[in-house]
Each structure stands twice: as C-alpha cells, then as structure tokens.
Amino acid sequence: MTPETLPAADAIPDALAWTVIVLLGLGTFAIRFSFLGLLGDRPLPEWLLGHLKYVGVAVFPALVTPLVLWPEATQGAFDPLRLVAALAAFAAGWRISVVAAIVAGMGTLYALQFLATLI
Amino acid sequence: MSRTDLAPLPPGPGGDAPRAEAAATGVRAAFIEGFWACAPFILIIVPFSLLFGVVAREAGLDILQAMAMSVLVIAGASQFTALALLQDQAPVFIVLLTSLAVNLRMAMYSAALVPHLGHASRGVRAAVAYLMVDQAFAVAIRRYEQDPPLGPSARVAFYFGGMSLIAPLWYAFTLIGAVIGRAMPAALSLDFAVPVCFIALLAPLLRTGPHILAALVSALGAIAFAWVPWSLGIIIAALLAMIAGRRCELWLARRERAAP
Membrane spanning segments where (chain A) (predicted)? Predict the structure, then answer.
C-alpha cells in the first residue's frame, strides 16, 4: 500500500491511458471480427471445420495451466493448494455442473488456505 | 456432432408467416436458454470486474478511463495485462502488442463461430464480435453442438441471451469497483477465479476421446512453450491441440471403418 500522501508521480498520463484504451479496444474488436466478420456465411473447407471443432478444448487448458502452476499472486512460485483446488474444480465441473466447478474451485482454495493457517 | 456443420441452412430469408411465428417463439426460448446457460458465470464476472475497477484506480486510471476500458475492450485478461504494463511504464506499442496477443485466441473463437453464426447480417456479426468473450464462446459452442439443434436465428438469440447478462454485469461491477476503489483483501485470492472460470468452461466441452486428447496436448503445450514471448505459447499449444484432436478423430473413424 502506497501512502495517500505520496504525489502521484507514477500516475499514468491521461493521453497515454486513452491511447491504450482506444487502440486496445479497436485491436481487440478487429481480432474478434476477423473470421466471422469477413467470411460471413462462406462455407469453410472440411479440413478447417474439422479442426475448429476443437478450439474450446484447445484454448482453455493452455490458459489454465500457467495460471495454476505458476500463479502471479505467488510471484510464480508453485502453490500446491492452488493445484488441488484446480483439480477439485475440474472434477466438479466434469461430474456435476458449471456452478459446482466454480464453488468447488474457490471453496477448496479457501478451505485449504484456512487449514494452512492452522498448521 | 458434426450435424451442425452439415445442416443445410435454408438459403435466403424465410418468407411464410406461420413458420416465421414458430421461429419467433423458438428464438425467444433460445434467448432465455442462453441467459440461464451463462448465469453461473455471474459468480466469476462480478468479483473479477470489481477487481478490475479497483486495480484500475490503484494503477492511476480515473473512473471514466476504467469504464471506457471495460466497455471498449471487454476482455478481462488483456485489461489486466495492459494495466500492469502501463504501471511498469512500458512503451505504448509493447503494452498494445502484449495485450492484443492475450486476445489472439479470440480469432480462433471467431473462426469456430463461422459455421454457426456466419449467416447473420454484418451488423449482427459485428455485435457478436464485440461481445465475444470466453464465456459467450464456450457456452454457445457447447449448445450449438448439442441436440436438439437450434435454428439459425435461435443460435444468434442464444448467444445474445447469454451476453445480455454478462456484459451489463461486467460494466456495472467495473464501475462499482472503480468508485469504491482500494482495499480488496489479497486473502480472497480473486486471481484464482480466472483459472477456475476457464476450468468451468472447459469441463463440459470434454465429450469425446479426441476432445480429451486435445485438452491434454493443450495443457502440455502451454508448459512446453511457456518460454515463447508475447504469450504466443498459448496459441502454439492451441494449434497443436486442434491438430491432435482432429488427427485422433480421423484415426478413430478409420479404425471403426476397418473393423468388421
């Protein structure tokens, strides 16, 4: 926590902030619009459709793995509690439901963190 | 499963009134179905957007800037990335390239949605694109590949039904976070809500052997290519995983055909 009395020396200049906000917004939109916007209902070749079926299962594990194995909150140090909580979330999501996955994930982490304070 | 890919879509707009009426109820039902399918993610969106509002203020953005970012970008991970780099006083193009690389996966979502939503008008597709967040994509694609299949307009309605819930919450809680600002106890480990969210999106998609194999390749790829700059390792891992899934599927089909 930086004390309130500190001058805002490290404040982000207005012009810089707005430049990033607007360009990031436009760039992100361009990425999202790309295929859907430009291809429309032009039929995609069979081989491409065959691969696109796997986009979801191909992207999410790649996003999850680094966040679980070397989380920023621990400065990249492996945290076994987070791994166990992630596995609990996965098991609940796999067997029960989306809500169960979320509750099991956060709930397991909180429970383990609480237990860890007792040791 | 591939039936949505192959379903013959009626060319051009349907003309007859009774069919249009039946379609209208189907469309409303699909909108509501989409709304409820995305409802569980309130649990993630609320704390995450609240956190973004707080962190944005701590980083030195004013309330308007924090809001503008959530409204214009509407992509949590890249918003946090941009904030962190701005705080580190990284050059503008580094901030932009790094944050956009985080969003590059959405080009794959965009392509994967073409067979399902490509029929919509350009304006609708632009709205779909604007709202293309992880939850929207994962929940929609899961539904599109399920039975009973949704008609073309119902697929659009399902998508917007989900986002009619997610997007306003994202804006509102960014605002609340930015206004109340400061003090979000680190003990809440809210950062962990992000992987939990992705896990919740992933689990229902693992329906077949090839899907599971693709997910494994993706996770291992993310570890193997973690050294690649601009978080492009994630894109490499995803491409390899898609190839693995497709190869596995073709191999299984060939084996089945070969069997007596």
Answer: 15-39, 51-71, 83-112
